[in-house]
Every structure is written in structure tokens, then in C-alpha cells.
Amino acid sequence: xxxxxxxLENIVRIAQQQKKPLAPLTDELPLLESxxxxxxxxxxxxxxxxxxxxxxxxxDGDVAFPVTIGDLIGLYEHxxx
Amino acid sequence: xxxxxxTGGSRGLGLGMAQRLAAAGFQVVALARKDSDAxxxxxxxxxxEGRGALHFHAFDxxxxxxxGALVKDLRGAYGPFHGLVNNAGLGTAGILASMPDSAIxxxxxxxxxxxxxxxxYVVRSMMAAQREIGQGGRIVNIASIVGSTGYSGLSIYSATxxxxxxxxxxxxxxLGPLGITVNAVAPGFxxxxxxHTLTGAQRGQIARRSALQRLPTVEDVAGAVDFLFSDAAxxxxxxxxxxxxxxxA
Lengths: 81, 249
Ligand SMILES: NC(=O)c1ccc[n+]([C@@H]2O[C@H](COP(=O)([O-])OP(=O)(O)OC[C@H]3O[C@@H](n4cnc5c(N)ncnc54)[C@H](OP(=O)(O)O)[C@@H]3O)[C@@H](O)[C@H]2O)c1
What we know:
The complex is a heterodimer of chains A (81) and B (249). Chain A is an all-alpha fold. Helices cover 52% and strands 0% of the residues of chain A. Chain A is built from three helices and no strands. The longest helix of chain A has 15 residues, at 3-17. Chain B is of the alpha/beta class and 249 residues long. Chain B has one domain (3-187, 218-243): NAD(P)-binding Rossmann-like Domain (Rossmann fold), CATH 3.40.50. In chain B, 44% of the residues lie in helices and 16% in strands. A seven-stranded parallel beta sheet of chain B has the order 3-2-1-4-5-6-7, with helices on both faces. In chain B, β5 (137-142), α6 and β6 (180-187) form a beta-alpha-beta unit. The longest helix of chain B is centred in the middle third of the chain and has 28 residues, at 101-128. Chain B is globular and about 50 Å long. Chain B starts with a strand and ends in a 6-residue tail after the last strand. The A-B interface holds A 13, 17-18, 39, 42-43, 46-47, 49-51 and B 123-125, 127-131, 135, 174, 177-178. NADP nicotinamide-adenine-dinucleotide phosphate (NAP) is lined by residues 8, 10-14, 32-34, 60-62, 87-89, 91, 110, 142, 144, 187, 189-190, 192-195 of chain B. Chain B: Keywords: Oxidoreductase.
């Protein structure tokens, strides 16, 4: 199972719903410059927890917050591996 | 049917709210530590009337660590939730200077830590369900007029109720972009098990000091919650509805 398309699809859907213009999504794109705000990221994490059954941030702060889209995908790939 | 979770729905105000919301067509899950005869009778009545639905779910809300799993279980059993009423609460009275530390801790845990944690997980579940059921949702926190007035012997209780109001206002701002409304209802003194220690004289005094010279009822408070869950309240958020027969007027 590949989490990459699931994450990207969720990002696009949530940004649309929250009316946030998205930058072109590349692995190098910093999350802060993607167009997603903190609420969008909270919705993303909740949606992925629901569909993938994992929340890599649910470990009392010992996970460094990912800097780029690639880091975010890597974190979930690692958590679901 | 849209799902609504009512904590402390087995008796008192919570039972009144659960019945009212079921009658309005919601599928209501009443949560408490133990089932009650009154709730069982209400379930039978709702089933007979064939509108809405009413269920019981056992859980001890003092088990903060179990709340995440509780919400997952509820979602699995009933599907996504549209609404939450944080009603369960303790009404422990006592002069602060002589209150056991453990009682202070217990009161704050059940009246604040528990509802905010439950709200966190229900909100996450609402966020995740947007794809299925779209945006929107309703959260109602049951506060109390003593959160903003004052009553000797209820300092910790009052602190927890004032905290719920602060929580309500900021969360309304946070969840507004999702179309989720967050409001509080602040009842005055209502005759329930929580207030059974009040004497007849104290009740009479509270009634005399109220503009309408009487106490509000369970139905009055349930009616306010019913309104906040109705389409008519779609543009009401971040506010406190006081239901106290004019006690604080
Ligand atoms: N009555 C009033 O005059 C008044 C006025 C203002 C505000 N309020 C507020 O309204 C709310 C309801 O009050 P009420 O008078 O209806 O209270 P109540 O008659 O004492 O009922 C409390 C409900 O909460 C449940 N509950 C208590 N501890 C629980 C726990 N650890 N886990 C799960 N459920 C628990 C109880 O069921 P179990 O015991 O089976 O768990 C019951 O269903 C409270 O938040 C209260 O502060 C009441």
C-alpha cells in the first residue's frame, strides 16, 4: 500500500474545501509555503488517522514536525511500514 | 440519521436533552457509567414513536486515557458524529479551605479535562468524516450561572464552569472555518440529583431572587440545547445561553 497518493489527494481535497490556494506539490516544498494553514494540517492528520489508522504525531511531542512535503510523506511511510 | 453524543445522558438534564434530541430526529447516544431505569423507559418510548433513536453507552469519563479509544468505538458502532453535548459533570460542594486535594483534582478532571479531551477526539472524528458527510457539526458545553456569578461552597465547580465558557469561545473561532458551531448553555439551579442537597428553604430563596419567581426545569434546558442543534441556530456560535428564570437578570 502506498501512502503517497493518499496523502497528496487529501491535501488537495482539504485545501479546496478550506479555499486555500495550493503551491505545486513537490517533495522539496516546505509545508509552511504549501498554502496549508494549521487548521488544514490538523484536518489532514485527523483524516489520515482515520483512513490509515496511524497518527505519527500522537507520541507526546517526540516527533520532529516535518519541514517539507517529502518529510511528511516519509513520516507516514515510516509509520505504516 | 445524524448522530449526537450526550454525556451524562442517563438522568437529570442530560436525559432530558437526549430525549429531546431523539424527538428532533437525531440518533442519540447517551453516555454514563451506568444505565438507568429512566433512560431505559425513554429508549422504549423513542423506539415506539419511531422518530430518532436513543442508545446507551457505558463509559467512565474519569478515564481520560481511554477517551481516544472510546470515540473510535463509537464511530465504529454508529458512524460519524454530527454533534456532542458535554453535559456530564460533578457538582461537589465544599468550602475551599477544607476540601480534600483529591476532591479538587477529581472535580477538575471530570468537569474540564474530560470534556475538552472528549471534544478533541470528537472534533478529529468530525474532521475525518467531512469527506463522507460534508462540513458542519454542533458542540454544546453545559456550563452554569455560577461560572459567572458566584456561590459560596462552589469555588472549584465555578472555576470549571467558567473554564468551559472560555473553551467554548476560543473553540468556536477555531472550528468556524469547518462550519462547526460551539456554544455553551448556562442553567440556573434545576431540581436534579446534583442539587438534591439543597434544602427547600434554599430552593425557595433562589426562586424568590429570580425574575420569574421560579426555577427553570430540565425541559427548559433541554429546549435550549434542542434549539442549538436546530437549523434555526446555524449562525449561532461562541455564545452562552443562560436558562435561569431570570436569576442573574
Ligand atoms: N442541576 C443543576 O441545577 C445544574 C445547574 C447548572 C449546571 N448544571 C450542569 O448540568 C450538567 C448535568 O447536571 P445534572 O444536574 O443533570 O447532574 P446529575 O443528575 O448528577 O447527572 C449527572 C450525569 O452525569 C453522569 N456522570 C457522572 N459522573 C460520570 C462519569 N465519571 N463518567 C460518565 N458519566 C458520568 C451520570 O451518570 P453515572 O453516575 O451513571 O455515571 C449522570 O448521567 C452538569 O454539567 C452540571 O454541572 C446543573
